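Bug: token stream looks shifted between consecutive jobs. Job 1:
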Amino acid sequence: MKAYQEQLNIQNNKLLKALAHLEYSYKKIAKLPEDVSKLDEETLETWESFCARFSRVVDLFLTKYIRTAVLLNDPGFSGTLRDFVNQAEKLNLHDDTEHWMAIRELRNISAHEYTEKDLSLFFKQLKKECPFLLTIKKVLS
């Protein structure tokens, strides 16, 4: 149990730092155009940084923090990522498993190739979901 608590503290700190970086990037992209065809290299780089930070927060929260928090509560728990996310909802670490799984899917598709139109839609979706993602700070406090 002590090892899980130590690991949870480590993940908590990593997640807080990642959230601060994401929030910084979110503020930078908040008023940027989403239409990729209208972006210069610097603006595109800003969007790509935001996407990477978004993905990092999703990974840290779902695959590290939640897994560790669930195991701290029940060291014998096992299952898929969805099982862990469901269990985390029961532990009040979040309140919407389906929404988190949809965000995980968004994170997963970030590695694929896109047309300009698809990439523009992807940027728009990430921008829309970012405030939800930032709410996990309340779990960490």
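Job 2, same session, no restart:
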Amino acid sequence: MKQLLGNLKISVHEKLYLKDPESSALGKKIIEQSILLINEIGFEGFTFKKLGSAIGSNESSVYRYFENKHKLLLYLTSWYWGWMEYRLVFETHSIADPDEKLNKAIEIICRPIVEDSTYVHINEVLLNKIVVNEFSKSYLTKEVDEENKEGYFSIYKRLVHRVEEMVAEVDPSYHFSSSLASTLIETSLHQQFLKEHFKSITNCNDKVSTSDFLLDLVSKILKK
């Protein structure tokens, strides 16, 4: 799978950037350092001025690639969901049994992230932490409807639809496949957050994984 992924470019909506950061060494450095900095200080404290200092340049260099930090966050989260989609597609495409395929998809979405050497300028482990902590900030805005129309969330929605199709294959009579698919993906993030910050309100821990919970949930909902 790594060899196949190595030949693939994660495509992000072109309206999220002014200049494709994958097109230059500086652009890749901006992505690399933004992940490190957002993980370190959080999205609220993150500024292009601080990022400019981190890359040894000024903030105007960053503005040549991204209009604002909101667009940068959308870029990072979109890249993450695109990367997750590739993993899901390649690891499930040869599975014929619908139950096994959906279970595998849940395991992929929930399993701990390890750094992928295919993309040397992106630390996927830290990016996962950013998605867990900051993804909701990319869409809980007044502009979400307009940005949705522009296609900014198309990769995330495409991943949800892939899981939705798997749910429908398992139980065609279930009328809430889309809701269940989006719940599975959002819950995978939420439970990671709870495990880290609100341990008393989740059963997920070092011994009980998020995938254990979601697999049990799905088995009780769908007519398997």
